[in-house]
Amino acid sequence: MGNFDGQVVVVAGGGAGIGAxxxxxxxxxxxxxxxxxxxxxxxxxxxxxIKSAGGKSVARELNVADQVGVAQFLNSVFxxxxxxxxxxxxxxIVGPTNTPxxxxxxxxxxxxxxxxLLGAIWLTQAALPIMKTxxxxxxxxxxxxxxxxxxxxxxxxxxxxSAMIGFVKAVAKEVATEGxxxxxxxxxxxxxxxxxxxxxxxxxxxxxxxxxxRLGEADEVAEMIAFAASSACSxxxxxxxxxSGGRATY
Length: 250
Hints:
By secondary structure, the protein is an alpha/beta fold. The protein has one domain (8-242): Rossmann fold. Helix content is 45%, strand content 16%. It has a seven-stranded parallel sheet, sandwiched between helices. Helix 1 (17-28) links the parallel strand 1 and strand 2 (32-37). It is globular, with a radius of gyration of 17 Å. It starts with 7 loop residues before the first strand and ends in a 7-residue tail after the last strand.
């Protein structure tokens, strides 16, 4: 499943849920993990847990919606460690749930897109010059099965994740000869703090669509992320890996 010995991996949104699970797993496999989160205390907590288990990690504050800030952040990581091997982007918000389109506002859409979609774009944009120079890189964006199949009452979220999947497919082809792979992960509903405010009706709908009949676990998604972020993922790019309990139909 890949060995991260000597590698430096940034995990955006690493302070909770899927990002925290990915940070912990990659560190356990030898990587130096930069746990980045908009809530610094969360990043510090995950990083401390990694170090207490014998892993290598630092915590950083990061707002992925800030284009300039993202570029400065990744450049600072490269200056500090001398390399940037992989980026895992798990930063995201759900936005309105169980809300019909007629009640969605421009502010709703702009907020979700600024984090879920533009955050992915800014992270990729800032990482590519560094990775192109190294002729190596792995970028993994956490999308959602909702981006492929749609969830009713969640228009901004579905829009952001669908667009993310399309973005990954396009930019991966731009750098396919550069030693860089860029892929996305499409989980079904996962048991994480991100879903704490998701309406009960929406959660029931999403679980009803999963043939396995249960929520996914963050550790299960982390395993797929760890592969896609590793050197083992050498001939797959522009792809969307499903971790959906059988929900995916394509």
